[in-house]
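note to self: the first set is below, dont mix up w the second
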Amino acid sequence: MRRTLLVALGCAALLAPAACSSGDSVGGDVGGGAPVSTATEVEGGEVALCEPAVDRSGAPGEDRTADLGLEDALTGIRGHATAVGDVDGDGWVDLFVGTFADRPVEDYQVRGADGPAPDRLLLGSPDGFTVDESFPGGLGRTSGAAFADLDGDDDLDLVVARNPRKGERRDLPSVVLENDGGRFSVHTELDAELGARSVGVLDYDGDGALDLYLVEDRFTAGSSVLLRNTGDLAFEDVTAEAGLPGDVAGLGVVAADLTGDTRPDLFVAGDNRLFVNEGGTFAEVDGPFEWELHGNEDDPAGAAAADVDGDGLVDLVVGQHFNSTLDVGERVPVRLYLNGGVDGGGRPSFTDVTDESGLPGFPTKAPHVELVDLDGDGVVDIVTTASAADGTRPAVLLGERGDPPRFATPDGLGDPQYWIAGAVFDADGDGAPEIFVVEWEPALSSKLFEAPEPAGDWVTVAVGPAGTRGVGATVEVYEAGALGSDDARLATVPIVASVGFGSGAEPVARVGVGDRDAVDVRVRMPHDGGTIDVSDVPAGRRVVIDAGCP
């Protein structure tokens, strides 16, 4: 099934693009920080092209933490998890931050905090972020999170992964929180013993409901589990039934189509094991994923997926949580694996190009990683939570075209500072990405930075309200007028709900388009659910399929 959406730019609507049809125009000035949209109705849905809510703000690389309200909102926290998404449908991305609250009380009594704070939900707005006082945070060991529509009602629910231990402020379980009109309540206890870390979100069996893969670390002697969504926010363990082994440990997970068959596969970072989805069951595939370890506290950590070299195949990057970098001075890179395509049996092959791509060894940990075009030049970059600029900024490896692709080493490596988790998202509504990094030490603030100097613009693609219907889809972007041509392909990006280490991604695809005025977009829905084509999308717009602008 294919729906071709030839977007006519004659319908501008304020907040209500569903009221527009091709050829209609709605006049009037736009105010109050609301997005403008262009919309075309088609059989089975519509497409809206939404402009940013505000003009570009913030200088390249600027620290926006204080002026967007995050410095004071995140005191009393040993940050270990984050997730981003528009939970209330107002068009502004909201932010969850999870904490380890089990340390001595006096450890948290800095920066004005009385003691450990609970997990927090911060609501985005034109004026920055404010704490949602109604959110049912808890005092536990929150180690991962993801927003996803788990009950099919077109809003984002929240999965909170925890790493429980016995004792006060240590024993909260992993849970699902239901979103009801922007208000959350704990609905489902997933597991009270699993030492969970990251959360994979995927519809593994193609039944239309998003399932969960909870990654367990190696320290609790258990194994990661696949939880099938049986409806009404209930889940059942189908790990063995789905062909997944019971000895998989890790810290991060990729849940995305790595073979091009529209089914979500799994890569678990830690044990570094790859599982290909064969239609509701998984088969393990070997790869060049073994790492040299220097100590017993060295682990591959977060993982992310996107097409890095422009061949239309989804590649992998894996971060590192190596204590040996800090303990004995090892320098350890994040590692890049290029996808070489599938064999006759549909099994992918990967090649480790870390050295050839010039990825530097970091003198500190780099647990969180993301693949995103941060400067809009049309080339994928690697965002890490190691530090650069003498410990003041996250280390961003800007991509350069090549075979294999090359990455520039940022200045000022050498400081031991690193951050635990992170998220790249549009925090201020201007259409450009910011980088949020989660701080472990309560004496220091988590940070939000503007991206580097932009070298182009972006197009963002969402399916459903707040991206609720897009998880598992793959977005391809082409030169305008050349939709589907391999030679004109600019980017291939999977839409995911989780990324990196302990972090939830906004379920959209953000693609840098350089200095192009317009591009063509193709969305491949999961499990052969159809292909949606949108032609002549202007740079700087957010494409929203089957929903309007908020």
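second set (the one i keep forgetting abt)
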Amino acid sequence: MGRIALVPTMGALHDGHMTLVKEARRHADVVVVSIFVNPRQFGPNEDLDAYPRTMERDTEMLRAAGCNFVFAPNESELYPEPQVYKVLPPAALADIVEGHFRPGFFVGVCTVVLKLFNCVQPRFAVFGKKDYQQLMTWCAEATRLEVRTNADNPEQTAQALAFGAQGIGLTRTEHMFFEGDRIDAVREMILADTVEGRKKALAKILPYQRADFTGIFKALNGLPATIRLLDPPLHEFVPHDEKSQAALAKKLGIKTEKVVARVAALHEFNPMLGHRGCRLGIAYPEITETQARAIFEAAAAVQKKGIKVKPEVMVPLVGFKRELDLQVEVIHRVAAEVQKEQKVKIAYSVGTMIEVPRGALTADEIAHTAEFFSFGTNDLTQTALGVSRDDMGNFLGAYTENEIFKKNPFATLDQTGVGQLVQIAIEKGRKTRPDIKLGICGEHGGEPESVKFCHRVGLNYVSCSPYRVPVARLAAAQAAIEEKRAAKK
């Protein structure tokens, strides 16, 4: 039959339902619309019999919209006697908001949806925005922890905002380098022998990055954006096969031998712990200068249009306070230059990623300079556990079988080990700077157990990829409710 999409309804259909049918048709070969007035969603004092039933009109509308099948079971068919099971939603959410006023409402919703799924067995299910918005509204009412997104362009930003993200917790500027022809300018910078040569190439990159940041600031419309400066080692941007190296040499008008020699010189035995992060900016401060100028010129341009901007410039891989000091000096100098040139005052902050153990253990020192910490738990997990995320596949099965890892530590935060480093950094950072902003930007920021940990230890926000924002928001709400309930016991 092909891929099936289900649109669950209680009948009394309107144009909004037809929009869902059209959306279902985009994703599936067969569209099934269920019409069932679910008695389990009605409370004892609610009039089930008065709910409108317009089957003939509904089926005509569905036929016109392209629905293939209408599934309209009666109560005895969907709930045969005896009713042997029901689906219980998370206890923390079952009796709040609408559940508080309509006991059993969410049990009824969860149960009927599961039954419909079992009957129709769809590949996709299409629900209305109202359902999602209602859920997210409830989450917002309960939540203390903010949820931001990891986004590298205006499109991702807009997508995450639609899911309810409250800003950007991580923009990876290196992802912008691969768009269009700009990679050529990046490679020209890497191959340059002098500061002047690198600056000439960086001048070509500047307008690209400025345009990227302008789009992001406009999309955010006043929400904060944490922008990480260049992080990966330079060898990731150059070609490694002979044919591509020869093509690059021809394009840049240099000898192939020079490209080959430079690529060889960039080789590292352990790139994750090599010449990357703030180490790049310290060795080549002109890279930091260019990126900072792109950020602040974009912020100035957007601010002049009457749109608020909140750039948060993040220096990666800091383990020593002096590393951050050197980079912050460059950032502040460039910010002052741009503000003077553009005749604007930009409210910005500068902070760092805590992603190596020394950064966490010396957070009290680093907080003298950093206005915020963002825990890069992907790399913090690698450096704390001494485990490569890319190479752990050879022993992950054995470690899970033998219960060394209860769960994949790169999917669910290791709260005992890595979590302890996070807690140490929080305590030390706040001791030095009580109002320091604290967040997490690894993919752990979208995993429910990890989000709840972040709530318990007092982070201000979590950040995750756009499609994980709803999961993170729900987990943040659950964490807040669980905390309040525990406090009452």
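remember for set 2: The first helix runs from residue 15 to 27.
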